[in-house]
Amino acid sequence: MTLDLLKLRYFAKIAELGSFTRASNELGVAQPALSLHMRALEEQLDVRLLNRMPRGVVATEAGQTLLSHAQAILRALEQAEAATKEQAEYPTGSVSLGILSSICPTLSIPVIEECSQRFPKIRLTISEGDSQTLRAAVDTRIHDLAVTLDGVAKPTSSPLFEEMLYVVGPFGQFAPDAALTVEEALGLPLILPTRRHGIRILLERQALMLGRELNIVREIEGVASTKAAIRAGLGLTILGRGAVHAEQESGTLSAIALTRPGLTRRLVLDTPVNHPPTRAVIEVQKILFAIIIKLGDEGHWTCLLPKPPTT
Fold first, then answer.
1. Domains 89-160+266-303 and 163-265 share a fold
2. Which end of the chain has fewer beta carbons closer than 10 Å to its terminal beta carbon, N or C?
């Protein structure tokens, strides 16, 4: 059984937009023709892929599975075409970069600006996520590059930088000369993400080693929401230096580094295996390395001096 790439392309667009009508307009294909293609695809696979709703369509569980594979296949084809056509001076094509949520606001904007200025023909997509989500996206080749945690990425990943961990509170929470040990920090009223997040895993490991319990008063997914909760006086949190550097500099939050011992986490660059990068991916990777070093010089983190790829 061979899947038709055209049907996969139509299915992916319908599933992504959640509408036959919108997909028809974007693809330039009549809606009845799309319906025939989807019916044929469902018959070929002997499974329902789309649930028809009063307002559009929603992918079934089987449809979600096919969608993740279809997106990876279509991206690979697009990159193969771009790699064949591109010229060394003007790289083109799509690049998908995943970044750990806690540092994405800091890292993404300068990367986007630099890429847009230097390589306007590269279509750069940046997605933020937790370390587990980023790993899965790299494994399925949805992301070409991912800045994620060392303990979750593949052993073949490249080291990027070390982040000191800080206790973060409202403005004025900590005296300028204050210091906190890791053991003391574990007893603070903490706002933390769920257990799938790397920083939570790291802190629970420290608590186990010290024979302490984490004092978690609230679980909140998302760094921006966590910072808002801190400003509202709902608790404190522990974040990497890069996630709180701007707020500490502007005086909207206060933060002190964990000491005795200093607690750090390592960020790495994860990439798909057995999948040669296109020229566009290589150029984005070079930009990423340069921005990381620049931000490291500004005090966001301690760089590990990655070696940029060569063409």
1. yes
2. N
Look-up of token digits 């494994």: 139
Q: Which two tokens stand for residue 266?
A: 């390592």
H or E, element range at 135: helix 131-139
Fold adopted by 5-68: Arc Repressor Mutant, subunit A (1.10.10)
pTM value is 0.68
116, two tokens: 């847009």
Task: For residues 208 and 202, give the distance between their C-alpha atoms in angstroms, rounded to a whole number.
Answer: 10
Question: The CATH number of 89-160+266-303 is which of 3.40.50.2300, 3.20.20.450, 3.40.190.10, 3.40.1380.20?
Answer: 3.40.190.10
- DSSP code for 234: S
Averages of pLDDT over each 10 residues, the chain, 311 residues: 83 92 91 91 92 90 92 85 66 92 92 95 93 91 93 84 92 84 93 88 90 94 92 94 86 87 87 87 95 90 64 48
Q: What CATH number belongs to 163-265?
A: 3.40.190.10
The pairs formed by 36-44 with CB atoms below 8 angstroms and a separation of 24 or more are 37/6, 37/7, 37/10, 37/11, 38/7, 38/10, 38/11, 38/14, 40/7, 41/3, 41/4, 41/7, 41/8, 41/11, 44/1, 44/3
Of residues 204, 205, 223, the one with CA closest to residue 214: 204
Q: CA 13 to CA 27: how far, in whole Å?
A: 8
Q: Measuring CA to CA, which residue among 85, 104, 242 is closest to residue 163?
A: 242
